[in-house]
Design brief:
Helicase, Ruva Protein, domain 3; 11 helices; elongated; single chain; alpha/beta
Length: 246
């Protein structure tokens, strides 16, 4: 393992990931965490151009040797840097087996860019939180905010044994399409409210939402049935509509 990365070594799964992204020879693809280049090689076989961001210098040297011709042809643009700090190039599709410890900030960085589709390998638990609906066990802050940016679906679960070194967790392939399921007009307030409510998820909605509203200088009235609920019992639309009414 290099800098927290686990490398996907199963050729069948690598092909599936590329198939899920519907890659063509017109696509510019961004890959985060190229690792040893197993997925990178298949992306280069199918896409017009691949941008790769890798933070580990030893892996950069390995990638430069492995894809020397593609780099010379400028079909593979390799950047050594932190994906959370490096400015993303313009790309059509995002296809990556990302370092799991940066899943949340990297996903929100992706949300703020233009792209057609993303196919991402996540830790299983993160994927379930990203795609959860109200009433499901993993439903929470991430689920709700993500719905205001995209549609996300788990395509399949991947056992840990298909990675080297073998991680402690299973994984999941998720496809993300930038078509919001939830329309939000006041994004900053919406995201702030959702984060606040789920930081107090054991409290009833009435107390928490009153506390948040007072801190923002708003006066509110809530229906009695809503006051007695917990945050995870509320549909995503509740949060969007609530801030619209303020």
């Amino acid at each position: 393992m290099v800098l927290g990365q686990h490398f996907l070594v199963d050729r069948e799964i690598i092909n599936k990931i590329c198939n899920y992204a519907f890659l063509s020879d017109e696509d510019a693809v961004l890959e985060i965490g190229c690792g040893t280049g197993n997925l990178t090689g298949e992306l280069l076989n199918r896409a017009k151009k691949v941008y790769g961001i890798e933070i580990d210098r030893e892996l950069i040297q390995l990638l430069e040797k492995r894809f020397k011709n593609e780099i010379q042809e400028k079909r593979f643009i390799l950047v050594c840097g932190d994906a959370l700090k490096v400015e993303f190039p313009k790309f059509d599709k995002f296809v990556s087996n990302i370092p799991y410890e940066i899943s949340s900030p990297l996903t929100f960085k992706l949300f703020k860019h233009e792209y057609r589709v993303a196919v991402v390998m996540y830790q299983k638990e993160f994927a379930e939180r990203l795609t959860a609906s109200s009433g499901e066990r993993n439903y929470g802050r991430l689920s709700i905010i993500a719905k205001s940016y995209c549609r996300a679906e788990i395509l399949e679960f991947i056992p840990r044994t298909l990675f080297e070194p073998v991680p402690e967790v299973d994984s999941a392939i998720v496809r993300i399409v930038p078509e919001p399921e939830l329309i939000v007009h006041r994004r900053e307030l919406f995201e702030d409210l959702v984060r606040f409510m789920f930081s107090r998820r054991r409290k009833m909605v009435g107390k928490s939402i009153l506390e948040w509203s007072k801190s923002k200088g708003f006066e509110i009235e809530l229906a009695e049935d809503v006051k007695k609920k917990r945050p995870e019992e509320l549909e995503p639309e509740f949060f969007a509509k609530f801030v619209d009414m303020l």
